[in-house]
Amino acid sequence: MQSVAPIAKRNSEIWHDISSPPYVQVDMVTKSYNGATVLKDVSLSIYKGEFFSLLGRSGCGKTTLLRILAGFEKPTHGRILIDGLDVTNKPAHKRPVSMMFQSYALFPHMTVAQNIAFGLKQDGLEKAVIQDKVSEVLELVQLCGLEDRMPDQLSGGQKQRVALARSIAKRPKLLLLDEPLAALDKKLREQTQFELVNVQEKVGITFILVTHDQEESMTMSTRMAVLNDGKVCQVGVPHDIYEFPNSRFVAEFIGNVNLFDSVIVEQGPDYLVLESRDIDCPCHASHTGAIPVGAAVTLAIRPEKIMISTLKPAYPRNWTHGIIKEIAYLGDVSIYYVQLPSGKVVVSTLPNLLRLEDRNFKWDDEVYLFWRSENSIVLTS
Length: 381
Fold this sequence. Notes:
By secondary structure, this protein is an alpha+beta fold.
């Protein structure tokens, strides 16, 4: 299958339209097992046609929430609404929901076509209708010609597409995906990410994905919710969560980041000045929030936002110096680990734009690190 970049869906931000009601509502859902609470008052609004991701570490509650949406679990408290209908107490088979499992759960004794047709037969559809629907989804996932094969005759990527075809054949209102790409190798997984987005855009079904893979979530999602310890930490589009995390946890969990314990020493109408024992000079941050002078905060700077030079910057802010201790060459980028006089190690990622025999910087070079004010993220929690 040819990769198709997800463009159209990214431009449709229905969640900004206050007149559009949520398609899926998770309303103050709490789930406890034997006194242990795994979900704590979780509320989410997901809109029709979204590719929404639940992202978090193992044990954060994301899979439990997916099972509650599917009807495999009941919440201890709270409600689940789909297209305006309260389905909290409806069993799984009576919900307009399909689920695609990590293991694919294909029937080994059935052909590709029979696997796809299984749910349609359970619904009592006529044979001709079933054949039409099977043919339609086979073409959609580009498996035409493989309908008579058995699951053990398929590659991992082909099995994944059969599972997807079976899930969307009934045209559910909601498709839940539980780590659907985990069994694929890295290259196939990256290719399949765009294929899933392309299929989702064509069928228009609302997708909710559970994953611990940040790159996977960032690539496919219209929006994502970051969960930790059973709570929603932040909801937003991938760009906003990466560039504007609302807490130290989110900043650390999404991508790589350099963190500096700091103190606010000056507050302006649209900027803050911070001091940190790890940084040689005051740091200027573009910031519109009101944080009082003297407040302890965390300064966060992404590695790709930090530049390196052997020359001392002429301006009196947003720089520090150190010694290069490690260099990792990854082809398209090089990662530099710079130890500051305080002992803290700062990571800077620079693109390799030219084919140079010699690197610009070498081990044990003394260098200066600098960054722009708008790339300084100030975190209060």
